[in-house]
Amino acid sequence: MYILGISCLYHDSSAALLKDGKIVAAIQEERISRKKHDISFPINAIEECLKSEKITIKDIDYIGFYEKPFLKFERLLYQHLQNFPLSYRTFISSIPSWLNEKLRIPKILRKKLKYEKDIFFIGHHLSHAASSFLPSPFEKAAILSIDGVGEWTTTAYGIGEKENINLLKEIKFPTSIGLLYSTITAYLGFSVNNSEYKVMGLAPYGNMNKKTNPYYEKLMGIIDVKEDGSYRFDMSYFIYHYKNKMPSKKLCSLLGGNIRKPESDLTQRHKDIAAALQLVTEDIMTGMLNNIQKTTKCDNLVLCGGVALNSVYNGKILRNTKFKRIWMPPDPGDGGTSTGAALYAYNTLLGNKRNYQMKDAYLGLEFSDNEIKKFLQESNIKHREFKSEKERVMTAAKLIYENNVLGWFQGKMEWGPRALGARSILSNPTNKNMQEILNLKVKHREKFRPFAPVVCIEDADEYFECDKPIPEPTDFMLMVYPVRKKWQNKIPAVTHVDGSGRLQTVRKSQNAPYHNLIKEFGKLSGIPILINTSFNIRGEPIVCTPYDAYKCMMGTGIDYLIMGNFLIKREDNPQDMWDSEKYATD
Length: 586
Fold this sequence. Notes:
Elements: E1 2-7, E2 14-19, E3 22-28, H1 29-33, H2 43-52, E4 62-65, H3 69-82, H4 88-102, H5 105-112, E5 118-121, H6 124-133, E6 140-150, E7 153-161, E8 164-172, H7 177-187, H8 196-202, H9 214-220, E9 223-225, E10 231-233, H10 249-255, H11 268-296, E11 300-304, H12 311-314, H13 317-320, E12 325-327, H14 337-349, H15 369-378, E13 384-385, H16 389-401, E14 406-409, E15 423-427, H17 434-443, E16 452-456, H18 460-463, E17 479-482, H19 485-488, E18 500-506, H20 512-525, E19 529-534, H21 546-554, E20 560-563, E21 566-569
Parallel strand pairs: 1-4, 4-5, 6-11, 11-12, 14-20, 16-18
Antiparallel strand pairs: 1-2, 2-3, 6-7, 7-8, 9-10, 13-21, 14-15, 15-19, 16-19, 17-18, 20-21
């Protein structure tokens, strides 16, 4: 049985394919379209999912869609009528997309895919919950789904047991921790639904003491937190429920200044506000989780929704609550709901037993050595072919040890927003200048943002103060832990200002070449850790194809690219090739 899961028309469109209950492909549309956070119908991702199994749409038995459009439209009508006439402009501007696309999903599926069978419309937070619980290692777990908003709900908790998910309580729009985080993100001059993680990275530069950071008290003053962990906002400080922008004049006045202009200087006030936001988020999350654990009496927790991408807090959950184990999927945000929709249809609606556990994130497009070689030859790109796997790994380790920046393009593309060793840029964490080199020469991004360390699972506890046993979500780069003090000065390029690192752990069973490379670098440097950052430049999706990878290298300061079994040196090739008429396909 094949089931296709689809998420689209809001942000981070994606498609996922299940075969007899197991995810065999999952792809974000942005990786193929090259449009960051692409919201469009994921026709390219769907086609690639089908192609991976050599099937057509006729072989699909069911489609699962990640939300209920009419329920979401009901909320839209209600919020705009409630806030009329303030909401008039926003309402008028939003109606065309609803009438043309968002309310016509069945018609779009039949027109674009020529699909004629059954479609399941699954609640937004049920899709989130299913994406996290059903592929988890747990038979039973508490579930917390928390994001901006889905239909009416912004926060929901419940229990998953075997194939069943029961969401017990919810908090409804417009109160939303996710939208609070996005509002302050906009206030600090960053883009909403894209740059919340930048605010998380900025927070440690601010005052993280609740007693002395004045913005913590100000933000907590507009939130009514109940004993059971639920919360309500004073909505007089917000306008997102009736306007297409986030910070209100009243909120700006509370925080002591106007909205920061993008790319302008970040002052200490901005950093302190980011710190206060992170502190507020952590306090509210901890209160909710303590109540959820008390209510459900579960030792296991699965977390989902966009707020679950707050890796700084994720690393504190087991220390601050009574939960003993935690799990999140590689993409707990809206992009990941296509997997949840498909799994919920198969396991819960159709009643099939769970037979799948997500142990790695390598679910995307793959290019064979023959395909890569054809691209290199047809493009007249100078390259060298390795004679063995050992030569490839040893060459890569030596290049990184010599402080080169290396593009690493291997196997199936990762699922989710993090590069996990399939489409990664790798470099030397022991070089104190490497963070600056990567930011200026390659990533073209803000200097305050940290880079992630990648370490083999068996070595992680030596270098990081991890929970024990080390939670599986570290495999997906979803948890931040302190770097042990004796190593902080030895791996300065991956040690953040607060002494932490958002580590990725690697198991040999997941990705043997990547695991071997880290170990080989350790033989040369004495420290088996690499810098791993996503293979892209600022504002672009992670690379997908050989062309994307080569173009990225030639447009940046990446020194070498190892793509499949081939080595390409940037200096050996014309610097303008990547922008030639033949390959300029942005």
